[in-house]
Amino acid sequence: MDLLLAKPLNERLYGWIALGLSEGNFTDDISGMHADNQYAPSISATAAATYSFDNGLKLGLKYRMQSGDLFTPLESISLDLDTGIQNSVYGEPFSGKLNDYKRLDVRLEKAASYDFADVTYYIDILNVFEQDNRSNRSYPTRNIRIGNDGDLNVIPDEDEGIPLFIAFGANFAF
């Protein structure tokens, strides 16, 4: 289910809210494996607002949150010394969950008119609070390490998301 509410609150303030709720499941007929909600976050929400000042200056805020990605945890890994083949033991499919995704972005823009063009100058500040938004966990074999105890360990790969990022720019309309 998706819901979107957008409304100018007055002549200077505009805002919108989007909410997505997802409940799904997957069953593999051959193995009988069943997993809930493996392809979509169960909750996704975004709220945004823009305020226009008298002098062509606009300030915008956008906050996004979604439930963390599900993944299948790696329980253990071992190496067959006779064949050299690794044996991986995984937990219940999609039973692990990464932290929720949270991000606040801010945009400040200024409109100006010149003889040659209308120009909008902007500053974007993405992920203002430097949230650690990890997603897409996997266990590649290139990340296998031998621990001090002689056990094999795999350091998971995860997409790290965008760090605090500041961008400056200008849009020209001729």
Record keyword descriptors for this entry:
174 residues; mainly beta; 7-stranded antiparallel beta sheet
Could you explain how this protein is built, in words?
There is one protein chain. Helices cover 0% and strands 58% of the residues. It has strands at residues 2-8, 13-21, 25-27, 34-36, 43-52, 57-66, 70-71, 74-79, 86-90, 96-97, 101-113, 118-126, 135-138, 144-146, 152-154, 157-159, 165-173. The strands form 6 sheets. It has a 7-stranded antiparallel beta sheet with strand order 1-2-5-6-11-12-17, with no helix packed on it. Strand 14 and strand 15 form a beta hairpin.
Structure at a glance:
Helices cover 0% and strands 58% of the residues. The chain is mainly β and 174 residues long. A hairpin with a 4-residue loop joins strand 11 and strand 12 (118-126).
